[in-house]
Amino acid sequence: MTALLETRDLTRRFGGVTAIDNVNFAVDHKELRCLIGSNGAGKSTFFKMLTAQMPPSTGRIIFDNRDITDLEPSEIARLGIGIKNQVPDVLDGMSVEENIWLAARSRVGREGALSVVEDTLALLDLRVRRKDLVGNLAHGQRQWVEFGMVIALAPRLALLDEPTAGMTAAETIRTAELIAELNKTMAVIVVEHDMQFIRRLNAFVTVFHQGRVLAEGPMHRIMENEEVRNVYLGRDAA
Ligand SMILES: Nc1ncnc2c1ncn2[C@@H]1O[C@H](COP(=O)(O)OP(=O)(O)OP(=O)(O)O)[C@@H](O)[C@H]1O
């Protein structure tokens, strides 16, 4: 079976800086993958290229056997790549259920949207908060509303950029459970810095360093990798 997503010699330069440098990367259908790497390693630039928020300098992006490199963001979303940005893309002046309804409607139309909203609220444990304005929610819950929007859009690949940023320990654990839930029906790529969280996800890990793939493997192998420990984890990482 061919990969769901593949990049071929993907490169992005900003003047003299090569943010992404000939990256060949592949993710399978229904796979869960973590991307790690120090600040400036190129992770956000990589996500932006996958969702056409930024064009590559050179290289190609293949999704489901189709070259999507030159498509518009809306076309890529329609083909099935969803992104949850670090700063939630939610409408603070609308309620929890309205935010999720808008996402659901864009996929299934008005008729089917209500049942998608019910299922999503149940999955997120947010039924009691359904009428609350998103702007009044705690940080973690706002993040989960955006998870809800990704769930309602039902992409084939979800890109999650630092989903636990600013969360409490309990919220982080719950987020790992939600990602496992998402991953039952879609491939997920998570950019994260929280090593404990990545261990909890038990995913295959890709390490970026200075725009290149430095190492790939299961988390326990990554933790043992001398080069990764030197440039990213630090020698005392356990
Ligand atoms: N719009 C831009 N203009 C110029 N340089 C940029 C731009 N965006 C990113 N860069 C540079 O590209 C490199 C990669 O940045 P990027 O934000 O992708 O890294 P990152 O791994 O996501 O970092 P972080 O973990 O801090 O989010 C950095 O050297 C950064 O300064």
Automatic annotation (TrEMBL):
PROSITE patterns: ABC_TRANSPORTER_2. GO terms for molecular function: ATP binding; ATP hydrolysis activity. Residues 5-235 form the ABC transporter domain. GO terms for cellular component: plasma membrane. Keywords: ATP-binding, Nucleotide-binding, Transport. It holds the Pfam family BCA_ABC_TP_C. This is Branched-chain amino acid transport system ATP-binding protein. It comes from Roseivivax sediminis.
